From TrEMBL:
One of its GO terms (biological process) is translation. GO terms for molecular function: iron-sulfur cluster binding; metal ion binding; methyltransferase activity; structural constituent of ribosome. This is Ribosomal protein RSM22 (Predicted rRNA methylase). Keywords: Iron, Iron-sulfur, Metal-binding, Methyltransferase, Ribonucleoprotein, Ribosomal protein, Transferase, Transit peptide. The keyword Transit peptide applies. GO terms for cellular component: small ribosomal subunit. The keyword Protein transport does not apply.
Amino acid sequence: MNASAPSAASLRAALAALLDGLPPNRAAQAVERLIANYRGTTPTDAPVLRDRSDVAAYAAYRMPATFEAVRAALYALRDAAPDWAPGTHTDVGGGTGAASWAVAEAWEEGPPRTTVLDWAEPALALGRELAAGIVDAEWRRERIGSALSLADTDLVTVSYVLKELTEADRTALVTEAARAAQAVVIVEPGTPDGYERIIAARTLLIDAGFTVAAPCPHSGACPIVPGTDWCHFSARVSRSSLHRKVKGGSLPYEDEKYAYVAAVRFPATPTTGRVVRRPQIRKGQVLLELCAPEGLGRETVTKRHGPLYKQARDAEWGDSWPPEDEG
Ligand SMILES: C[S@@+](CC[C@H](N)C(=O)[O-])C[C@H]1O[C@@H](n2cnc3c(N)ncnc32)[C@H](O)[C@@H]1O
């Protein structure tokens, strides 16, 4: 592992070093308090992350998972626009910088200049400390609201932030992101309400002239009947000792559920179909639930389909289907 390259492993190493300085159990207690706080649904008018140990706990507990979720969304964007790379990036509500790590990793060959904006100074300070020498970013205090004014930028990321905002502030943020950026990637928890916030943001982006690059195969209306289901995906994240302390259990991983939209102002080729549930593997057949331009559908791939059957067995929730040629 190259310790100075942005990756899941270097992020974990930086987070582990951070917790070294905290008294035993202090991080677990702070995480438990923050989880209780985040379960509340009302947006607050002051930062929830109050001091360094809150922030260190939040970072160690959540950053590996938000990193993986944002990373998956960015790779889906890259698949739709392989020749595009951002020269500048603004991470709004960026906190300790998980999305900035993911962006630096996704375009590692030429990472953009990143600006992280957040109203919580302790989060920015810790993010700056964690990223030192690995992710090149400027960390700036900024409040999201109707007065938010973003400098023009290639890419805006907004990860796990909309939930913390009032509806008016969510609209102001997405509208301003659409004005300032060439590409906007928004990630939320993979819950029914997270999906609803994504759909509302997706509509605002399309109305502002964007096309959807991922996860959808088109920029038309989402075929999910409101209230019956929600589009979301899953990223596997290794559990740290802090996770085991807070949640108990012995599984070495957990699955982070997330919903997202990546939309662009430049030409992109969205997938022709996407696997929207974990594929079910039965004897001699694989059942795929798909979202395609003509809507939601199911496909059963059997041994009789030859090489496609092997590809179906390897297909994962969130993948493109049929698989794109790799030549
Ligand atoms: C759940 S955290 C997500 C942080 C980061 N984007 C990530 O994915 O790990 C939400 C972040 O939004 C920030 N935030 C919430 N409301 C805000 C506001 N009105 N103005 C600026 N930042 C805000 C919080 O301080 C926090 O850092």
